[in-house]
Amino acid sequence: MRNRLALFVLFALSTPASAQIRIPAVLDDGMVLQRGDATTLFGRAQPRAAITVVPSWTKGQYTTTTDAAGEWRVQVAADVAGGPHSVHIFGDGERVVRDVWIGEVWLCSGQSNMEWQVKSFPNALPRYPGAAEEVAAANLPQVRVFDVSNRVSNHERRDVQGQWVTSSPATAGDFSATAFYFARMLHKELGVPVGVVTADWGGTPVESWMSARGLAKFPEFAGALETLAASVDPNLRWERQQASGSGWWEGADARGPRRVAAGWNGTGFDDSAWKTFQLPGSFSGELGGFDGLAYFRMEIELPASWAGKGATLELGPIDDRDDAWFDGTHVGSEHEDGRWGAPRRYKLAPELVKAGRRAIAVRVLDTAGPGGINGKPEQLRITSDDAALGSLPLAGTWRYHMGARMSEMPPIGQGAGAQFGAGTASVLWNGMVAPLRSLSFKGVLWYQGESNVGRAKQYETLFPAMIADWRAQFGN
After folding, report:
1. CB atoms within 10 A of CB 6
2. Beta strands at 396-405 and 292-302: parallel, antiparallel or unpaired
3. Could you report how far apart the first and last alpha carbons of the chain are, in Å?
4. How many helices (H) does the chain have, and how many strands (E)?
5. What strands, in cross-sheet order, belong to the sheet with 356-366?
6. 383 burial class (0-12, 13-18, 19+ CB within 10 angstroms)?
7. Do 81 and 102 touch, CB atoms closer than 8 A?
8. What is the mean pLDDT of residues 224-238?
9. What's the pLDDT score for residue 247?
10. Mean of pLDDT values over 220-234
């Protein structure tokens, strides 16, 4: 966005404190407003109701009347940085927003590199002290973060889920690292309160973050947009997607010319023809650059003392999706988008934990990027529920089989009617950005485009179109 400040605030609706006055999540306690001479505040109430807004930082009050749909808005001056302030809203009842600050507000969006948290960098590096020291020094009461909860939607939502959080040693570790360091720098340089709104989702393509209007000149997305528009029941659509996804996974092992042999996930399977791979680790060798299904297995010896006691299979983060088996029994899976950085922990029922040789098997689907069973060696282990027994390490040499490529498989969920996921055109704009589009922002930070790397030529025009789309939508 241009440096020239334009102030617009769209406030969609969150759960009301009063039955008659409703305000959005981003207009709640602890918020930061972009400084300027005209900030628009929005909300809802009963149709044709009188509304009065009284900000504590001005001498006046602002009155309006809701329209036939119950929408109201007023423009207030917020040209002097500082706080804390409050906003009183009167109608048929009263709502008070407290701990309001005026300063600089930025929208921070993108994929995994924007999503990556401060606490994810534990070790010190040259010129960087490491997360522990950074978090300990994060007592910055005038730096606030609003993290938008991940949400896909087939239509533009009125509101997002989230809350304003003040920077402190207790909270900063969970902030987006890029957003936090940027906000901290601005606060230091400008000496004013700084708020950042983070809306990010790892592993998502840029078209997910664009509006239907912004994608209108790209015919390759017309079918996806028509499918979204045709859906009138989001709950039914989600149920169909889940059912379809289950069917896709059930048939995954039989796809492609390198289909895996039956029984591969059980104890005693002959994997002598399989190659070896050191885990944890990102895909390399023949798996380097591979997008598709990869199968990993190893066998361990469980001591007699473990028998009949529950345990947890810990695999660390897996890029992107996975299923896990213990002794041939399926014990857990992660099939959602954007979970590539989440450590996997799957419970083993006591009756599964038997003494002797037992197989651990993991099916990994890498949809884009490097892929792998990642993390640290100590994250790859099996831990007994009996603390005295400790853990058995799983890091080291595993056997693997390279299965079907993504190009050899149908899209996940194909064949069950209207489908969408985080990679579908426009769904993240609808669910995570559209509700914010008139919020007063100084500008936008966007980080990453890796999920479009396979369509780099298209991205040359798609990403500039996204920038133009957001500038038009935000009116800035």
Report:
1. 16
2. antiparallel
3. 6
4. 7, 23
5. 275-279, 396-405, 292-302, 356-366, 321-326, 329-334
6. middle
7. yes
8. 62
9. 63
10. 72
Pairing of strands 32-34, 93-110: parallel
H or E element in which residue 261 lies: none
Q: How far is CA 207 from CA 88, 215, 327, 341, 444, in A?
A: 39, 8, 41, 22, 17
Q: Which two tokens stand for residue 230?
A: 């045709």
Instruction: Identify residue 213 by its one-letter amino acid code.
Output: R
Q: Are 359 and 326 in contact (CB under 8 A)?
A: yes
Max CA separation in the chain (angstroms): 80
User: Could you give the dihedral angle defined by the CA atoms of residues 179, 182, 183 and 186, in that order, rounded to the nearest 10 degrees?
Assistant: -160
**Which pLDDT belongs to residue 59?**
85
Kindly state the average pLDDT of the residues 230-257.
61
Residue 237 predicted with pLDDT over 70 = no
Count of residues for the chain? 476
291 and 337 in contact (C-beta within 8 Å)? no
pLDDT surpasses 70 at 358: yes
Distance CA 88, CA 67 (A): 20
Whole-number pLDDT of residue 409: 72
- Whether the CB-CB separation of 56 and 102 falls below 8 Å is answered with no
- Classify residue 174 as exposed, middle or buried by CB count within 10 Å of its CB (0-12, 13-18, 19+): middle
More confident: 370 or 452: 452
| Residues 109-138, mean pLDDT to the nearest whole number | 87
By the 8 A CB rule, do 128 and 135 touch? no
Q: Which helix (H) or strand (E) holds 173?
A: none
Q: Which DSSP string corresponds to 337-350?
A: TT-TTSEEEEEE-G
- Only one residue has tokens 């390759």, namely 220
Q: What is the SS3 assignment for 65?
A: strand
Give the pLDDT confidence score for residue 222 in this predicted structure: 86
| 117, two tokens | 């948290």
Q: Is the dihedral of CA 177, 181, 186, 188 positive or negative?
A: positive
Please check whether residue 107 is in contact with residue 162, taking contact to mean a CB–CB distance below 8 angstroms: no
Copy the structure tokens of residue 386.
Answer: 């009996």
Mean pLDDT over each residue of the chain, to the nearest integer:
86
Is-contact 358 302, C-beta < 8 A?
Answer: yes
pTM (2 decimals)? Answer: 0.62
C-alpha dihedral (249, 251, 257, 263), degrees to nearest 10: 90
Token digits for 284? 């390399």
Give the alpha-carbon dihedral of 273, 279, 281, 283, to 10 degrees: 10
pLDDT of 246 higher than 60: no
Judge whether 112 and 370 are in contact, CB under 8 Å: no
